[in-house]
Amino acid sequence: MTIANKEVDIYPAHKAGSPLVVFNAFENEGLAVRSELENFTAADFTLASIKITDWNSDLSPWAIPPVYKNDDPFTGGADAYLETLTGEIVPAIISELGSKPAYIALVGYSLAGLFAVYAMYRAKLFSRIASASGSLWYPGFVDFAKSHKLAALPQKLYLSLGNREARTRNQIMAKVEQNTGDLHEYYKSLGIDTIFELNEGNHFKDAGLRIAKAITWITD
After folding, report:
1. 20-26 vs 104-109, strand pairing mode
2. Which of 6, 30, 69, 104 lies in the 20 to 30 Å Cα band around 50?
3. Rounded CA gap, 24 and 28, in Å?
4. What does the pLDDT read at residue 38?
5. In angstroms, how far apart are the furthest CA atoms of the chain?
6. Residue 206: domain span
7. Strands 2-3 and 6-11, how do they pair?
8. What is the SS3 assignment for 116?
9. How far apart are CA 52 and CA 81, in angstroms?
10. What pTM, to 2 d.p., does this model score?
């Protein structure tokens, strides 16, 4: 179905009122993630996969230049997209399901993982958050996270990276493991039930598997 000009695939739970997991996806990741989940968890929840086409706008919290030569800039459209997500997309999904979910979780990979963490500061809707291989290298994000108040403390927060993601010549992105570990400790100090998991490989290895692991942990 299409909601607010976004393509949304809904994989419904068996029982009414089960949790809703909102996943901002790159292209058609939702089906692959749903298949991976069958190997990890028997938990009953609805997975709503939202296809993001303007990745560098919808998911970036503020504007920054390209991090690689000849790449596109990040234009800082996260607040606008989050307003659409919470005000139009999620309500339409719940209406389609016909019952209020037990809770709503927000999940993302890479820049969508950064967006999921950023959403904790701007919206109270999501009570569980998963950032798989999240782009927490994003310039200024650690300072932002520590100097701003969370809209609400999530019940559970999952953070992960590949163990080779920080091994890059790009000095901005090389900070990702340090930043993620730093934020993990900070969120723990706030009393949030959180975990930081290192997976084998670089940023592009086993994305579907990493997302499935993230969803499994927050829905357990």
Report:
1. parallel
2. 69
3. 10
4. 87
5. 49
6. 2-219
7. antiparallel
8. helix
9. 10
10. 0.96
